[in-house]
Amino acid sequence: MTAHSEPLDSVLATVGETPLVRVHAAPDAVPVYAKVESFNPGASVKDRIGRYMLEAMLDRGDLAPGGTVVEPTAGNTGIGMAIAAGQLDLEAVFVVPEKFSVEKQRLMAALGAEIVTTPTDDGIPGAIDRAYDIAAERENAVVPEQFSNPLNVEAHYETTAPEVFDALDGAVGAVVAGVGTAGTLMGLARYAREQDPAIHVVAVEPEGSEFATLLGGDSDDRDYLIEGIGTHDPERNELFDPDLVDEVRQVSDRAAHAELKRLATEEGHLVGSSAGAASVAARRVAEAIDGGEIDAPADSVATVFPDSSERYLSKDIYGSFEDWSEHT
Ligand code: PMP
User: Is the CB of 205 under 6 A from ligand 1?
Assistant: First the structure.
């Protein structure tokens, strides 16, 4: 199928149907394929939930026509939701911790959204609390709340996952994806388990993040630079279901940064640090399948590259590791 070969009525129709592209630095016997989500109109995977969640909430009557959405976000969800809100005649307010990239805030504002920043030290939990305070003060305002709303998972179960499986004719041995809200991975995992319960499901997080503790593993709680994935407050994430995950793999900032640079120079991909982390983990999983350490029902690994490096140029993402560390 050729996606978007007909004239389209709205930019919302360009969300999804992104290409699945082979990652070449992986064993020949176990190819790795990445869903390149920067092909979405807001240039990230989050356009999918922006459209899906707002349309579903309007359909169900959970959101009044002409109402306001107030959403805590690291930025990409804000951009995706701002596109959808604009086309669906809704107002949008986004609550963003200060540390996230300035490009994202400018793009949300360009799309007509109002931006409220919260202190970096309060993290995402601080942004979530603030979003509920703002919604309580305004009329017809709701918090879609990507961190707890099952519609986030459903968006990926209904779109991302079938696209991946169709492109590979169902021959998927493992799915590997970074976890922020965990919506992407949970949608993929639910779909994968329905196709074949033996498909190996891997969550990817930065070293220093603590999703690993939800599977009984250890993690030292410390800061990390990779943007868009990880948590310091795993209990607060309501979507991550440990029963759907075989393992959590942690990737260092240094390895993710080296990989996003390699992906640009060797494979022509302009991707952010969470894609670098996903790629490192997916390649390790492919090697483990190749070496017989992981038993998978097919010799292939599917992963997701969530966004583009253009979003992080202000953070010197293509500088040395030290330059990037200093600006991130
Ligand atoms: N990478 C980036 C750059 C993101 O913005 C996000 C969303 N926070 C993710 C990965 C993780 O996606 P999810 O929230 O579906 O787990």
Answer: no
Name, in order, each residue with C-beta under 8 angstroms of 197's C-beta and a sequence gap of 6 or more.
none
Return the CATH class of domain 11-39+150-327. alpha beta
pTM above 0.95, yes or no: yes
Radius of gyration of the chain (CA): 19
Q: Is 46 a catalytic residue?
A: yes
Distance of CA 279 to the CA centre of its chain: 13
> Which pLDDT tens digit goes with each residue over 9-57?
999 999 999 999 999 999 999 999 999 999 999 999 999 999 999 999 9
All CATH 3.40.50.1100 domain ranges in the chain, comma separated: 11-39+150-327, 46-142
Given this structure, which CATH class describes domain 46-142?
alpha beta
**Contact 178 CB / ligand 1 (< 6 Å):** yes
C-alpha neighbours within 13 Å on the C-beta side of residue 28: 0
CA 181 to ligand 1 center in whole angstroms: 7
Nearest 5°: the CA angle 75, 177, 163 is 95
CA torsion through residues 297, 195, 171, 43, sign: negative
